[in-house]
Design goal:
Largest sheet: 3 strands, parallel
Distance between the termini: 30 Å
Oligomer: single chain
Number of helices: 8
Length: 179
């Protein structure tokens, strides 16, 4: 996560959400990707400890709430959720909240608030991660999934920064982004 955070610039607006049995974040709004703010987020990440359950729905819910309360804090129209897990979703699995419409409802709420739907880039970390959950989350939400083997530090760092390649291919020609 810190490797991905290091790729952010002052043009980006970011926040870190952690989840296990519950969800929390460094703050309740997106922060501009300044060196000072990236340092705050890095310190937040470094203080995280493993434990609890894999309640991804709580993490996603908090991420959407932060997007909705941070309408003014934005440099563009692209919203991205980088979703990391080393386990199988608990309480309510990805299949359940995709098929019962919860996630679609959250995405539609973004549109109603004048925002674009969020791309979900998912990272299945190690042998305990249920890749079917991650694939469903990313494929239904304009994203992609990476699977990283246990202990593959270089692999996770490479996967975390590959989102540049993914989005570079989606930029339309002759836009402000490509001039």
């Amino acid at each position: 996560a810190i490797a991905q955070l290091d790729t952010m610039t002052f043009l980006d607006y970011i926040q870190v959400v952690s989840y296990s049995s519950d969800a929390s974040s460094q703050g309740s709004r997106l922060l501009q990707g300044t060196d000072e703010n990236k340092k705050k987020l890095t310190e937040y990440i470094e203080k995280l400890t493993p434990g609890g359950r894999t309640n991804g729905k709580k993490g996603l819910n908090l991420a959407f709430r932060i997007f909705e309360t941070s309408v003014a804090e934005s440099s563009g129209c692209l919203r991205i959720i980088s979703f990391l897990t080393d386990g199988k979703m608990t309480n309510i699995g990805i299949d359940n909240f995709i098929t019962n419409g919860w996630l679609d409802g959250k995405q539609n709420d973004m549109v109603l608030a004048g925002l674009t739907k969020a791309h979900n880039i998912t990272y299945a970390l190690g042998t305990g991660a249920k890749t079917e959950d991650m694939r469903g989350l990313s494929c239904r939400n304009q994203g992609w999934m990476a699977t990283i083997k246990d202990g593959d530090v270089a692999g996770i760092k490479h996967a975390m920064i590959r989102y540049f390649e993914y989005f570079a291919g989606k930029l339309p020609a002759n836009t402000n982004s490509t001039k």
